[in-house]
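Appendix B, record 7
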Amino acid sequence: MRITTVLPATSSVEITFDEKQIAEQCRVFAHLIIAIPAHLSEIEIKEQVEDYAMKNGADYVLVGFVRENLDDPNAITFTPYGPKQPYLFTQQWTGWKFGFRDWNRGGQLVDYGYDRMKREKSPFDMPVNVQALLLTCQLGPLKQ
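Structure tokens (predicted):
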């Protein structure tokens, strides 16, 4: 599966856990479940998520819930679940309501938290799935 909205790459991206940090003009263009193996360090996870997000044109990555992945991925993977068209986050976001068939196959919810992407060690002792959004805040053809 691929992200349906094609955007030019960005040179930086902000990863946040706080919906209030998302600027008013930002649009969601990808709903993701990110599968993360247990062996990756926090820094490796952050770098790979940032790289994927920037290559796809994101200004923000909003991180949602994290739960145990009952599979054991060998590498980090990004699975998109729409949307068909970008939408304004502040007015049309309805919550973490995508990819339920895959999401519900996971195990227990896992605590991740704000300061968990700066250390050399692995933040998880098991593989996990992470809900995330990619957002663009650029004004232009996507502006309604």
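Remarks on this record: The first strand starts at residue 14 and ends at 16. Helices lie at 42-55, 89-92, 100-103.
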